[in-house]
Amino acid sequence: MKCEEFWKHYEEFGITKENETHLLDCAKCRKEFEAEKVLLKAVGGFPEYKAPETLWDRISEELTETKTVTVAKRPFTETIAAYVDELFSWFQVVPLKPVFGALVIMLVSVLATQYYYTRPLTSVEKIAQENKLARDLEETEQEYLAAIDKLSKLTEDKKSFRLIVLSVSAK
Fold it and tell me: Quick one: which of 2, 16, 19, 147 is 20 to 30 A from 166 by CA?
């Protein structure tokens, strides 16, 4: 006998020889059956309650009664604001709404910045970046050459100054 058949047979006929045999063979049903016995024993001490005769009439009347609900349309922004207020209603207990708003703005800023700097460059951006690097390199080379010229002039001036001093002192 299958477990489903056991429970159907048990509901209809109670404990029979077939049911007892199934309980001896099936640990799962035996465990459920023992739990049901404990439950029935615990509930069996309660007084039996009989519902009023009109209960089913009232229930069916409530179920068949049609109710009309009128929903007022709100502007989209008010709907979103109400949704956010409801979603974060626990913030009203603690005045943290401004702090939360600032944290959200900071988080979005950080994520946007990170995306901007880590995203792959387009071909136009790559060319622009290479051109900028080439200009920067050229400017650096020009500054380097200018510094070398300045240093050369200073050393030449020093040599000529020494020559003048030496010629004056020799006289």
Answer: 147
User: Which residues, 6+ apart, have CB-to-CB distance to 28 below 8 Å?
Assistant: 3
Count of C-beta atoms within a 10 Å radius of residue 86: 8
Which residue shows structure tokens 């007022």?
72
**0.70 surpassed by pTM:** no
* Cα 34 to the center of its chain, rounded Å: 45
How confident is the model over 57-104, as pLDDT tens digits? 888 888 887 777 676 777 777 777 777 777 766 655 556 667 777 888
Kindly give the residue spans of alpha helices, DSSP state H, lying in the chain. Answer: 3-13, 17-25, 27-43, 55-64, 76-87, 97-118, 123-170
Q: How far apart are CA 88 and CA 100, in angstroms?
A: 10
